[in-house]
Amino acid sequence: MDKDLLQKYFFVGLLLIVSVLVGFIFLPFLSILVLSSIFGVILTPLHIKISKFFGGRKGISAFIVVLLFCIVVIIPMFFIFMQVLGESKDLYSQLANHDSIGYIQKITLAIEKPIQKIYPTFSIDLNQFASFGANWIALHLSSILSSALSVLTSIVFIFISLFFFLKDGSKFKKMLVSLSPLQDKYDEQIFDKLKQTITSTVRGVLLVAIIQGVLAGLGLKIFHVPQAILWGCIAAVASVIPFGTLSVYLLSIAYMYITGNIPYTIGLVLWTTVVIGLVDNFLGPYLYSRGVEIHQLVMLFAILGGLIVFGPVGFIFGPIVLSLFFTLINIYQGVILKKTLL
Description:
Oligomer: single chain
Number of domains: 2
Strand content: under 5%
């Protein structure tokens, strides 16, 4: 075998082995790096403006942006998390100690009576579901508390990574472009598409989820639904699926009606109608208006699949991978197929 050819094979094999090892080294920090890069893309315009104010000093401006990000986002999230944790403990206590047994009996009768007119032998045991719910909450509360230190460590690493992504992001981009065998215009096309996907996903999914959660929690609090902030957070998470937030509202309305709070029931119905109509008909379409050109059904499965495969960060990572796929398909059609046809 030719010595030069053998050298090339050896080098490629060695490069693949080292690349796999590097991949395993960075795999535990994948979610941290993904979140940091995503926040870096979103906060880059702010970083550029602050950098100009400080005469182009990227390090100082990056530190200020990270500090502002902590004050505006992380600290409020911490207080909301503590509130949700407290309400989850209260809900667990109610279910475990059967404090809500009277409500459960009312709900059971409200469900059974209409159905027993058609099927007289029909019956349900909601106490069993309540016990299951209490066990589920206890299990997940313990896991959340046990992983609190890990979450805190991840947040610190996200701050550190975000600082360097803001400070040296342009250098990282130039390095990747120089390593890519594609023409620079195609590399720029890929980066532009990823940037557009990140900003539109955060604006169209995350921002809508936050708004839905805040409005849901506020409405439930006004009309005295128990554990309002907890259910508001559930409404925010459920907003990524069709009718997810509406389901939380409907359960709350049913609860208030069955427990006999008719004025609050009417008020909650009106609140739900106004909020759902406002978000679905005006706010949602406006935030999605400059989004990626991917069908909503495909984007829905990208978000859900991303959540299943990558965990919480998957609601952004899924659409990014999907958008990258379609961008590469466009480049393939413009470069490979065109050359083949020629």
